[in-house]
């Protein structure tokens, strides 16, 4: 690839890091953890691909790229929900300023969870989510709700290296 590309990620449990590695490899790009990137370095790349896990309506670490200019920005999120049936507009509007969002390509990838690795705050959040879903009448639960209840407390991983192909193609076309 002719462009200088940086793939930056913020990953608490490892799934976002895995996707970032796959993306960097596919693009022949530099890979860096967000906490190791200086804001002024972002401008030295033609394209910055930023990946962050989804936690309570937030995209982990995304302020690095929303508060510091990048020539071309591509964002990917990683969460448990099925991207083909999930509306991420509220999360995107909360995390990326409108003037940046209109010129940013965004991709959503499906991750995984290992409840044994969760920190105390995330354990409480997941327990609260379970409680909210269980209070819904069964006929009002979405497929994602059913799947959440079925896999609650287990280790599940929906990561798929093939799911990065649209993102990789988009970066190559910039």
Tell me about this structure.
This protein has 174 residues and is of the alpha/beta class. The chain has 2 domains: 5-111 and 158-172, Flavodoxin domain (Rossmann fold); 114-156, no CATH class. It is built from 7 helices and 8 strands. It has helices at 15-27, 63-66, 89-95, 98-101, 120-135, 143-151, 165-172; strands at 5-10, 30-33, 47-55, 58-59, 73-79, 105-110, 112-114, 155-157. Strands 1, 2, 3, 4, 5 and 6 form a 6-stranded mixed beta sheet that branches. Strands 7-8 form a two-stranded antiparallel ribbon. A hairpin with a 2-residue loop joins β3 (47-55) and β4 (58-59). It is elongated.
Quick overview:
It is built from 7 helices and 8 strands. The protein is of the alpha/beta class and 174 residues long.
Secondary structure elements and pairings:
Elements: E1 5-10, H1 15-27, E2 30-33, E3 47-55, E4 58-59, H2 63-66, E5 73-79, H3 89-95, H4 98-101, E6 105-110, E7 112-114, H5 120-135, H6 143-151, E8 155-157, H7 165-172
Parallel strand pairs: 1-2, 1-3, 3-5, 5-6
Antiparallel strand pairs: 3-4, 7-8
Question: Could you name the key traits of this structure?
Answer:
Rossmann fold, 7 helices, 2 domains
- Give the CA-CA distance, first to last residue: 10 Å
CATH architecture of the largest domain: 3-Layer(aba) Sandwich
Structural class: alpha/beta
CATH class annotation of the largest domain? Alpha Beta
- Overall, the morphology is elongated
- Reading the helices and strands in chain order gives EHEEEHEHHEEHHEH
CATH superfamily of the largest domain: Flavodoxin domain
């Amino acid at each position: 690839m002719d462009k200088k590309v940086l793939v930056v990620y913020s990953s608490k449990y490892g799934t976002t890091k895995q996707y970032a590695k796959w993306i960097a490899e596919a693009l022949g790009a530099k890979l860096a953890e967000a906490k190791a990137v200086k804001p002024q370095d972002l401008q030295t790349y033609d394209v910055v691909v930023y990946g962050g896990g989804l936690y309570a309506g937030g995209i982990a670490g995304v302020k690095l790229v929303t508060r510091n200019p990048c020539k071309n920005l591509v964002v990917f999120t990683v969460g448990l929900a099925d991207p083909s049936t999930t509306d991420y507009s509220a999360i995107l509007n909360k995390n990326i300023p409108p003037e940046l969002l209109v010129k940013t390509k965004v991709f959503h990838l499906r991750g995984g969870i290992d409840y044994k690795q969760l920190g105390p705050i995330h354990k409480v959040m997941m327990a609260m989510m379970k409680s909210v879903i269980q209070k819904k009448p069964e006929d009002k639960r979405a497929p994602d709700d059913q799947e959440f209840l079925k896999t609650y407390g287990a280790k599940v991983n929906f990561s798929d290296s093939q799911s990065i192909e649209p993102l990789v193609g988009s970066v190559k076309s910039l």
